[in-house]
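Tutorial handout. Part one gives the primary structure; part two gives the three-dimensional structure as C-alpha cells.
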Amino acid sequence: MSAIFRPEGHLSRATEHAGGPWSPDMLQGSATTALMTREVERLATESGFAVRRLTFDLWRPAGLRTFRTVSELLRDGRKAKTMQVRLMDGETEIGRCTALLTAPSADSPVDPFARPAAIDKAPEAGAPPPAFAQKWSRYFQNVSVRLIEGALEKPGPAAAWMRLDAALVEGEPNTPLLQAVQAADFSSGVAQIVDMRDWTFINPEISLYFFRPPEDECILIRAATRVGANGAGLTTATLSDRKGPFAEVMQAMSFERRDAVQAQAS
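Part two.
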C-alpha cells in the first residue's frame, strides 16, 4: 500500500502520493495539516488532554521534500493547554498549527436543542465521483469518496464521505483525528462555487473546533461556501462520523481570476 510520507529518523519524506492539485510536485494541503496533527495528537495523548481546536496557517507552498516538525508548549494550564507545531522545510517554516487542548470532564450536560445524532446516509449509500474528479491530485487518488448530496464537479453545497486509504506515514495507522483533519482540507473543494476554468481559489488557513473526538475512519463533510467583496470568501463545514457530528470547520478563502494570475506571471 502506498504512503503519503516515509519516515527517515525524526524526519518525514513526502512521496509522489503527496502531490497536490495545482502541481503534482507540490505538497497537498491535506498532507501538510495531517502531518502537523500527528505531532499534536502524540503530545495530547501523553498529557491525557483532548484536542478541542486546531488552527492551521499555511504560509507557503512546498515541494515533495523532507520535513520536520518543531513543537512548543505555549501555555501549560491545569484545565487547558496551548501548543504550537511548526512544519519545517529545511530552515523554512511552511506552516504552523496552534492547538487548544482541554482536560476531560467526568460528565457533560444534556443539550435539549440537539438534533438526532444518527447519520441518514452511510458511506455505503453514497455514489463515487466521476473518474476525472477523482484525478484532482495524486493525493486525492488515495482518498475514497462517496457523495450523498451535490456533486464535486458542479458548483454548490455538497456532502461527501471521505477516507484516506493510504497510510499518512508509512508503517503507522491513520487515526480518526488524522482522517478528520485531512478530510477537512477538502471542504472548499467539496463546496466550490466557481468555474475553476475561470477562477483559482486558496485557503491560507483552516480551523477545526471539536466538541467530541471522532471515532471512525470515514468522515462526512457537509460544506458550503460564501463569497464577499475583494475576492474574499468563507467555507464552513460540519464533520461527522457514523455516530453523528463531532466538529465544525472554517476556512478563509481567497478568489482570483485566472487571467489576472496569468497576467501577473507574465
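Part three, for discussion. The first strand starts at residue 3 and ends at 8. The radius of gyration is 18 Å.
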